[in-house]
Every structure is written in structure tokens, then in C-alpha cells.
Amino acid sequence: MRFFRRFFVSALPYPISRLLKICRKWYLDHLEDRIIFPIWIAFQCIRNKKRVVILRRINALGDVLCTLPMVEDIKQRHPHCELVFVTARPYRKMVLLSETVSFVYGASSWTFAPFPVFGLIEKIYSPQTTDERDPLAGAKCHLVDDLAGSCGLNVSNKQSRLFAPRSLIEASLSTYGLLSEFSHGRRLLAISCGRTWPVRMWDAYKWQQLVDLIHKDFDVTILQFGFTLGPDVEDEFDKISGVVPLVNRLKTEELIGLLASCSLVVSIDSGPVHIAGALGVPLVGLFGAVNPQYRMPKSSPAAGVISNVPCLFCHNTTPLGHWKNGCPHNMRCMKELDVQSVFTAVRDMLSVTASKVS
Question: Is 300's pLDDT higher than 90?
């Protein structure tokens, strides 16, 4: 259906096809959820003979995962209601893989805010981070606690979990030609380079040096995840060699399936940090502006690597010591994070996981 729609639109004169695309985007951003959501909520209430309570976190993959520990506490507060998780459509399957929520609404708009529907919704929880509530303030606690605290909750279980079924892992590996290597016992390692806020990123040439050092000491296949500037724009992260390039290609559930098959994940402060933690996959995280204690998983093997500069963790100060596109110190924390320190953490983590397997 999608193919025929695209073919039909592409065959139209440009002004008409452009107008149709604008109208469709406006419909997705402003109308679709407001039409479908109340119908969907009413159906759930009628089917289950209960009112619902909404937990809403639309954007930021890591924030969505770190919202999941709130589920049990909200269920205890509203024992006679059905809990519905509202998130962006690309994250819907990820939330279902947590096995904590039975009903997930995938919104088409990244700004959709649920609204009371005919008295069927008892309460709406919309967790926010400290800097979302106050752009000048920095959090002084773990992201899980920060999001829960914004809703007046103090969660007891601070670790989100994802359960990737074997069918998802095998399908993801098969799609990208990796199933044979995995089946024959070859270890997979993932790197996630970005792109994200510049204050979180590590230079591409350092990633290349790290990849070369890993290949020198370990017989592994390295998968490169993340996003770059796109197919029409030259990007330094597209030029990293010695990796299986999967940037800009994965659905969220495919990313989960592939990460679940990895022996180690090496990532800047971004979504794969939280996915690895939720899957229990060993992790090496690269941090500078953000204190790794406020991001790393609470109960899975993980090591945070930082540089030695006096302005570390400026994202956790008030006022914030940086803005998303830079900092007064030219992002020294990430620029001075050396390759050898990261490789040492990778080597130690791989050695530990190898000894456990043997």
C-alpha cells in the first residue's frame, strides 16, 4: 500500500505532489492522533471494563526506557485502572518488549499530548527531565529517578528491562547478513558513535583508532550503529573502516535484536547505553558533560570512561555549563578523552565476558 501511494504521488506534477505531502504531514502532526486516540481509548475501556491511567513519554529513546520503572508504582497507585503507555510510534514495539505494559499507543506526532477522553482517563503522567522543566537547571540524580521525581514518584526498581525473543534476534541478524557468523560463535561488538549533541560526541578519527586496536587484539565483528547526516551529505562517521556499517538503517526493534546478540556495546551517551543496560549486555560508555553515574544502568555490567578535565559533568550543574551545540571550553571533556583509556575499558570488559563464557 505504501509503495502504491508513493508511486501515485511521485507521478503527479510537483506542485500537486508537494501540496499532498504538506497536507499529509499536517494531518499526521495535528489530526491523526486526535481522531484515532479517543476511539482507541474508548475501545480499550469497553473491552476491559476499566478506566485507564496514561504514562506518556513520546521522545528520546533512552528517556522512554528510563520511564518504564515507573510502571509498577503507577499500577499500585491505580489498582482499578488499566495502564496505557503513550510513546512515539517507532518505540511502540520496544515498550512492549519490556513486558511491563500490555497496552501501548504509538503516536504519529512527536509532540502529541493525550487529553481527557469522555471521563475514561483517570490520570495522565508526563515525566520530564530536570532541564526540560527548567532549561538552566542540571539534574543531581540518575535519569530514572529524575523522570520519576517529576511525577512525584520514588521508584523502587531503578532498572528497566527488555526481553528480546530469539525470533527477533535471528531475524535482525539475518536481515543484515550476520546470522551465520553469530551461529558459528563469532563474537559481535557494537559501537555507537552518534550523531547527537556535539557535547556528547567523540571524534571519528578516535573511533577509527579504537576499532583498529580492537581488531588487533580480538577476533570480533564490529557493528556500527547510530545516525549520520544522511545519504546526501558527506559525514566523517560514514568513513570508519573495519566495521559493518548499520547507521541510518535500523528500526528500533532491529537495534534491540542486534544489541542483544552482542558481547559488548561501546557508546557515547545515547539510546544504546540504555538499551544495553535493559538487555543486560556489557557496556562501555563514553562520558564528559554528563556524569555516568546518572546514566549508566544500575544492575548490569558497565564501565563509564571519562577524561581528566576540571569542567567535567557540566550538564549536572545549575546553571548548565554548556548548551547542546557546544560549551565555553570547546568540549574539552570529550576532545581530551584518549583512545587508550577507552580501549583499556573495552579490553577489560571483553576479558571478563570471555572468562564467564568459558
Answer: no
CA–CA distance from 351 to each of 22, 75, 87, 162, 189 (Å)?
53, 41, 38, 25, 13
101 CB-side CA count, 13 A:
33
Residues of each domain in the chain carrying CATH 3.40.50.2000: 166-357
Query: 166-357 has which CATH code?
Result: 3.40.50.2000
pTM of the model: 0.90
300 and 159 Cβ atoms separated by less than 8 Å = yes
pLDDT at residue 181, rounded to an integer: 87
Alpha-carbon span 313 to 231, nearest angstrom: 34
Contacts from 210-213 at CB under 8 Å and sequence distance 24+?
Answer: 210/266, 210/339, 210/342, 210/343, 210/346, 211/240, 211/241, 211/242, 211/243, 212/242, 213/339, 213/343
Looking at the predicted structure, is the pLDDT value of residue 357 above 60? Answer: no
Query: Vertex 295, ends 108 and 345: CA angle to 5°?
Result: 125
